[in-house]
TrEMBL record:
Annotated InterPro entries: 7TM_GPCR_serpentine_rcpt_Srv
Keyword Transmembrane: yes
Protein name: Serpentine receptor class gamma
Transmembrane segments: 6-25, 37-60, 72-97, 118-137, 166-188, 209-229, 249-268
Keywords from the UniProt entry: Membrane, Transmembrane, Transmembrane helix
Keyword Membrane: yes
Source organism superkingdom: Eukaryota
Pfam families associated with the record: 7TM_GPCR_Srv
Species whose genome carries this gene: Ancylostoma ceylanicum
Length: 311
């Protein structure tokens, strides 16, 4: 079989963009990037980058028809894929609650999201993800021997795969229900504030972060539909449908984990300015752009100026 070049190219681009965004956030001196939202974004983003790598291997393994000799690598990738999947869902659920508390519980926000509580939330995110895949650690992979002597990778042992399906079903169901409720409440809150002409503190920035959470929620719902649909297909006993819906996971996962960095770049002016400042600096060092004079142009000075910190 031939490797899917467009999908692989998209994955490489997404990894590059995601790593660049994470690097900008982690190295920026702006206090806005030290807030809870961005800390959770970074924790989830690291898992997303790993997810792209391990799921890419699983796709390539099937396309190159790699056999049982590579089952230890496949086992690691399957476990890690499950871990990063749960990390992504729990991380975005936490972000949804963070946005809800920033708008609807603004007077309690600082008490809820103390630095200590933020790190506890990130630790719990990791612990839940590890617990979700603990039963698959060290599990054997199954292969089907084809008439031509090649092997087709089918995944985990049947009983473990069934257990995993229900775990992921539960994670998706919890995420979809709670996130939907939080987002509906947020939409209502924004609508009520707009009608009463009230202004949220740092409203422009908060609205953009809320829009980000809505975009991510929409694409996570696509994955939830795939995982929930897979459970129903298992009960139907239709192998062709099961195989088809299983293969949809990889492109849906690629889109789901790639949306956050692109969305944040578009919606967050702080991130765009820091990114442009970093690129301009690197281009000057490499000689692509001439060194800046003592008088910085107005447009560049604006892009590199200190940004007023918002929550």
């Amino acid at each position: 079989m031939v490797v899917n070049v467009p999908q692989t190219a998209f994955e490489i681009l997404s990894v590059f963009v995601y790593c660049f965004v994470l690097f900008v956030i982690c190295t920026s001196r702006q206090k806005v990037f030290k807030t809870t939202f961005y800390l959770i974004f970074v924790a989830t983003g690291i898992a997303d980058v790993v997810s792209i790598f391990v799921n890419s291997y699983l796709v390539i393994q099937g396309e190159l028809v790699l056999g049982p000799d590579y089952q230890h690598i496949a086992s690691f990738c399957v476990v890690t894929s499950g871990y990063t999947f749960v990390m992504h869902m729990i991380g975005n659920l936490t972000i949804a609650f963070n946005r809800y508390s920033a708008i609807c519980l603004a007077e309690h926000y600082d008490k809820i999201w103390t630095p200590r509580n933020t790190w506890i939330a990130i630790a719990m995110q990791n612990l839940i993800a590890i617990a979700a895949v603990a039963n698959t650690i060290g599990a054997k992979m199954t292969y089907v021997r084809e008439p031509d002597g090649s092997y087709t990778f089918t995944g985990l042992e049947t009983h473990l795969d069934t257990v995993n399906r229900f775990i992921y079903f539960g994670v998706c169901l919890v995420y979809a229900v709670i996130s939907a409720i939080l987002n509906v409440l947020l939409i209502y809150k924004f609508h009520r504030l707009s009608r009463s002409n009230e202004h949220i503190k740092h409203g422009h920035h908060e609205k953009r972060l809320f829009l980000y959470s809505l975009i991510v929620f929409a694409f996570c719902l696509l994955m939830c539909a795939q995982q929930i649909g897979k459970v129903f297909v298992i009960f139907s006993g239709n192998y062709d449908s099961f195989l088809w819906i299983t293969m949809q996971f990889f492109w849906i996962n690629d889109v789901m984990v790639s949306i956050p960095p692109y969305s944040l770049l578009v919606l967050c002016s702080h991130l765009r300015r820091d990114s442009m400042g970093l690129l301009l600096c690197k281009w000057r060092q490499s000689g692509i752009l001439p060194a800046s004079s003592s008088k910085t142009p107005a447009t560049e000075r604006k892009a590199l100026s200190t940004i007023r910190v918002t929550k």
